[in-house]
TrEMBL record:
Belongs to the ATP-dependent AMP-binding enzyme family. Residues 83-469 form the AMP-dependent synthetase/ligase domain. It comes from the Bacteria. Keywords: Acetylation, ATP-binding, Ligase, Membrane, Nucleotide-binding, Transmembrane, Transmembrane helix. The gene is acs. It comes from Flectobacillus roseus. The lineage of its organism: Bacteria, Pseudomonadati, Bacteroidota, Cytophagia, Cytophagales. Residues 531-609 form the AMP-binding enzyme C-terminal domain. It is an enzyme of class 6 (ligase). This is Acetate--CoA ligase. Its EC number is 6.2.1.1. PROSITE patterns: AMP_BINDING.
Length: 646
């Protein structure tokens, strides 16, 4: 039967049939997905093109952990994202690209052209020594070549590791070395608002520490003068002229690695989250089609950067596997002014807009005049992702942007989950401000207390875990499986632990309240407190530091650093700037503390543990009730910290 359906899938693109049509339909599918997950996902997966059908839909245990979806199935994700659309929608736009500058013409790339360019660049990668299983680092701005590079890796079975363009040379080097990448794909520079950022120079700095890298392929964007090292570096534009546009897709096993994406956790070193081909394809596409209720011919605009998981799943893979038109925007929401998103919506008649609460709050703060007069009538669905959305931002988004006519899907998920897990389905689920609402089919959330005991019923809060695998669950952390087990599967037995706190209201709706671990969510970006502390501590004269998050009007959370310096460090203003420069160099500008308070000591317990609870309270401005401080080694430091709070 698999074979027969597979033949059908080859002829047609059935992905649109995946959609849930009503709330009753959702309830039925949800029930089915819990009672018989293998049949449920098996049916969904048949809507894709598999070269060979799988033999076993799911095998799993959360102890090792080991999760295998669609075992024995053979496929290539780019055949699903590109080849199978050629007959039916070859001339339809696959990618619409909007430049950083509104004066530069936008570009439209049809499925046919995208297919050709991906094949060509895949041949360039091969020409430069790339083979199936190699790791390739991509460090690029939001230009079509970034999506092309990602897909070209997938075409030949190389594992891409995209590093967000805002990371420092040191961060790039750490990621390249962790994955032992042999090729880097980058550009001369990047345009970002009125700034020009020298990406190639940053890569050059990184590569001093990266002996595994043999080739650097550089695409031209800014025409910034660059150094091109003979024998190592080459130009994208020259290389593509030397290869053919014919590149048969590598046959991949369903469980072969598709990509690595680094993300921050409680510890100092970012983890390489690994996703595999089959499950990731099925889940990212299924959730794309459902959550946004994408309809044939619509234009989907996800404002994330492809350097984050949201861009991977909902700019590149999900939309393209569904044959959608995906809009890629190179710039920032406030350039040339705070009306840029709305100009883009009007210009390209965007139907689905998927953005982050931090962007909404920021644009809201500029005033409604940037929205007024813009034709937003094409919009059908609005999405939110990355952090909890507060009611005020939700209401503004709903009224000013959606004009009360567009459902808002508040999508909760993580780098590790590969796709959206808890979210309304547009026009199907009744929404509620600040609630991610209900789990999608196949997702089985559970709230537990500190001891891992299930908190049942409604009107309760706890730590959010998932008790059954979905197709795009994290498979491992690259090169260190034990770390994956420890981080996600050891806190609570037989559960995937998300790191998020959550409440379930009287209607059974979920509201994610934020991280319960030492991760700060700054403008939707995950930053580990330990990572920032390590960076600060590298600065000459710094003795010790402690970093916590605090509520920030625009960013959601800001970074508050308490720093102890050696006695002789005098000029605090300059030291503050030096520390910012240090963090920028070690991690990148996104990790710069918003506030730095110099202190002479940190509140520590007798066993030497920093009591972060106290530091968090002070950073929040809530100094009245610091709770029990009796276990502190030296309670007097608390008074000093309170007195100097910023
Ligand atoms: C997709 C993405 C994951 C963390 C996650 C949570 C927070 C994401 C959210 C949300 C509340 C939402 N988060 N979406 N919190 N409501 N709709 O953002 O992945 O960068 O790995 O961040 O972001 O705390 O644990 P990632």
């Amino acid at each position: 039967m698999y074979q027969r359906r597979h033949e059908q899938a080859k002829k047609h693109n059935h992905t649109m049939d995946l959609r849930i049509k009503s709330f009753e339909d959702y309830q039925e599918k949800y029930q089915y997905s819990v009672e018989d997950p293998e049949s449920f996902w098996g049916e969904i997966a048949q809507n894709f093109y598999w070269r060979k059908p799988w033999k076993k839909t799911l095998e799993w245990n959360f102890t090792d952990p080991k999760v295998t979806w669609f075992k024995g199935g053979k496929l290539n994700i780019t055949e699903n994202c590109l080849d199978r659309h050629l007959a039916t929608r070859g001339n339809q736009p696959a990618i619409i690209w909007e430049s950083n500058s509104p004066d530069e013409p936008s570009q439209t790339i049809t499925y046919k052209v995208l297919h050709e360019q991906v094949c060509r660049f895949a041949n360039v990668l091969k020409r430069n020594g790339a083979k199936k299983g190699d790791r390739i680092c991509i460090y690029m701005p939001m230009i079509p070549e970034l999506a092309i590079a990602v897909l070209a890796c997938a075409r030949i079975g190389a594992i891409h590791s995209v590093v967000f363009g805002g990371f420092s040379a040191q961060s790039i080097a750490d990621r390249i070395n962790d994955a032992q990448c042999n090729i880097v794909v980058t550009t001369d520079g990047a345009f970002r608002g009125n700034k020009e950022i020298p990406l190639k120079a940053t890569v050059d700095d990184a590569l001093i520490q990266c002996p595994s890298v043999e080739r650097v392929i550089v695409s031209t964007r800014t025409r910034t003068p660059v150094f091109m090292l003979k024998g190592r570096d080459c130009w994208w534009e020259d290389e593509v002229k030397l290869v053919s546009a014919d590149c048969p897709a590598e046959e991949m096993d369903s469980e072969d690695m598709l990509f690595i994406l680094y993300t921050s956790g409680s510890t100092g070193k970012p983890k390489g989250v690994v996703h595999t081909v089959g499950g990731y394809m099925v889940y990212s596409s299924y959730t794309f089609a459902n959550v946004f209720q994408y309809e044939e011919g619509q234009t989907h605009f996800c404002t994330a950067d492809i350097g984050w998981i949201t861009g991977h799943s909902y700019i590149v893979y999900g939309p393209l596997a569904c044959g959608a038109t995906t809009l890629m925007f190179e710039g920032i929401p406030t350039y040339p002014d705070a009306g840029r998103f709305w100009d883009i919506v009007e210009k390209h008649k965007v139907n689905i807009l998927y953005t982050a609460p931090t962007a909404i709050r920021s644009l809201m703060s500029f005033g409604d005049q940037f929205v007024e007069g813009k034709d937003l009538s094409s919009l059908k669905v609005l999405g939110s992702v990355g952090e909890p959305i507060n009611e005020e931002a939700w209401n503004w988004y709903n009224e000013k942007i959606g004009k009360g006519l567009c459902p808002i899907v508040d999508t909760w998920w993580q780098t590790e989950t590969g796709g959206i897990l808890i979210s309304p389905i547009a026009n199907v689920t009744k929404t509620k401000p600040a609630y991610a609402t209900l789990p999608l089919p196949g997702v089985q959330p559970i709230l537990v207390d500190e001891n891992g005991v299930e908190i049942e019923g409604n009107g309760v809060s706890g730590n959010l875990c998932i008790k059954f695998p979905w197709p795009s669950i994290i498979r491992t952390t690259y090169g260190d499986h034990e770390r994956c087990r420890q981080t996600y599967f050891s806190t609570y037995k037989n559960l995937y632990f998300t790191g998020d706190g959550c409440m379930r209201d009287e209607d059974g709706y979920y509201r994610i309240t934020g991280r319960v671990d030492d991760v700060i969510n700054v403008s939707g970006h995950r930053i580990g407190t330990a990572e920032v502390e390590n960076a600060i501590n590298m600065h000459l004269g710094v003795v010790e530091s402690a970093v916590v998050g605090y509520p920030h009007d625009i960013k959601g959370q800001g970074i508050y650093a308490y720093v102890i310096c050696e006695k002789h460090v005098g000029d605090t203003d300059l030291t503050r700037k030096d520390i910012l420069a240090t963090v920028t160099r070690i991690i990148g500008p996104i990790a710069k503390p918003d506030k730095i308070q110099f202190v002479s000591g940190l509140p520590k317990t007798r066993s030497g543990k920093i009591m972060r609870r106290i530091l968090r309270k002070v950073a929040e401005g809530d100094t009245g009730n610091l709770g029990d401080t009796s276990t502190l080694l030296d309670p007097s430091v608390v008074d000093e910290i309170k007195a100097g709070a910023l």
